[in-house]
Amino acid sequence: AKASGKNDIRSFTPELAEKARERLSLETDLRYAMQRQELQLYYQPIIDLQTLQTIGHEALLRWIHPERGFIPPDRFIPVAEESGLITALGAWVIHEACRQNAEWQRAGRRAVRVAVNISMIQFATSNFVDTVKSALHESGLGVEWLELEVTESVVMHDVKMVTERLTELRELGVRVSIDDFGTGYSSLKYLQELPIDTLKIDRSFVNTIQKDAQEAPLVKTIILMAQSLGLNVIAEGVETIFQQEYLQSLGCSEAQGYYFSRPLPASQL
Ligand code: C2E
Ligand code: CA
Ligand code: CA
Ligand code: CA
Fold first, then answer.
1. How far is the CA of 124 from the centre of ligand 3 (A)?
2. Is residue 61 lining ligand 1, measured as CB closer than 6 Å?
3. Phi and psi at residue 232, in whole multiples of 5°?
4. Which residues contact residue 135 at a Cβ distance below 8 angstroms, ignoring those fewer than 6 apart?
5. How far are the Cα atoms of 221, 222, 247 from residue 216, in angstroms, in the given order?
6. How far is CA 104 from CA 113, 179, 222, in A?
7. pLDDT by residue (tens digit) across 89-140?
8. Where does the EAL domain lie (predicted)?
9. What's the whole-number average pLDDT of the chain?
10. What confidence tens digit (pLDDT) does each residue in 169-202 have?
11. For residue 86, which ligand has an atom nearest its CA?
12. Does 155 have pLDDT greater than 70?
């Protein structure tokens, strides 16, 4: 206890106490945010690089707090994960994304996929697949239009659980992509064995595609690898036409990024 004495004192500095208070109030507010309809899904188009048509949207959560204004998901998703709120929040996101997509299809729009981000904690819960089924059932959305995005770290978390879960989803017919690919430590062996459909190349790699830097070897390698594994590949964070053309020349099938469109509210799509 003596050894940690120093740390105990440090943990009561006003700064850290303020941080803890801030986190708690964020958590409390998040509990009500869903009921108060402060949460909204924005959608970023996913572009087919051969036709340049939109073939899907990634749903991205937005929280407009009545006093604090816009709070980015990178700030409140970790709070939701630590407090357990992520299960209810994540279920809401899946239901809302399916509902919106089905509504667009019923209104006569050309059918496109919707991609939903899934947190590791949400993915690991035992009733996760039931949540997916109920969202599809309630919305009436065809299963082929739903894609789930899990990060690479999820995949390496608990290989047995993840394999079981992914197999269930595959049997259901839901597509799964590995998000932020290249930032984790996936073993090629698992990548080959897991029932996944898509690799999403992380923005940090796409960012290395620059006019003056002749080559982007990692981007090239990931695309070649995805192709040889028979996986679809989406480049994230495309911001310039140069990046688009480079990716097209490598045979990358899909892309998203500010160059095509920022994430937008449903009403502006
Ligand atoms: P992500 O899944 O990697 O989402 C991509 C992020 O990159 C989004 O940030 C998007 O707005 C941003 N982005 C897209 N194109 C560009 C570009 O060309 N340039 C730059 N600089 N950025 C671009 P956002 O919406 O702030 O989301 C951040 C992260 O929060 C997401 O990263 C995801 O991990 C998480 N997140 C968002 N919505 C949800 C959700 O519904 N559930 C879960 N579990 N996580 C979510
Ligand atoms: Ca994502
Ligand atoms: Ca990503
Ligand atoms: Ca990310």
1. 19
2. yes
3. -70, 150
4. 91, 94, 95, 97, 98, 99, 141, 146
5. 9, 10, 10
6. 11, 25, 34
7. 999 999 999 999 999 999 999 999 999 999 989 999 999 999 999 999 999 9
8. 23-269
9. 91
10. 999 999 999 999 988 777 777 788 889 999 999 9
11. 1
12. no
Going from the Cα of 248 to the center of ligand 2, the distance in angstroms, rounded, reads: 21
Give distance in angstroms: CA of 202 to centre of ligand 3.
Answer: 6
Closest to 116 in 3D by CA, of 184, 247, 165, 136: 136
Q: Which of 41, 177, 59, 170 is nearest to 112 (CA)?
A: 59
What is the radius of gyration, based on Cα positions, of the chain?
A: 20
Q: What is the pTM of this model?
A: 0.92
* pLDDT given for residue 36 in this prediction: 87
Nearest Cα residue to atom 23 of ligand 1: 237
Ligand 1, pocket-test mutation among 47, 60, 75, 239, most atoms within 8 A of CB: 60
With tokens 């099938």, the residue in question is 253
Under 8 Å between Cβ of 198 and 230: no
Contact between 137 and 174 (Cβ < 8 Å): no
- The reported pLDDT for the residue numbered 90 is 96
Ligand nearest the Cα atom of residue 201: 3
Residue 180 CA: which ligand 1 atom is closest? 3
Burial (CB count <10 Å: 0-12, 13-18, 19+), residue 268: exposed
As a whole number of angstroms, the distance between CA 233 and CA 187 comes to 18
What ranges in 173-215 are assigned the alpha helix state H? 188-193, 203-206
Q: Give distance in angstroms: CA of 243 to centre of ligand 1.
A: 19
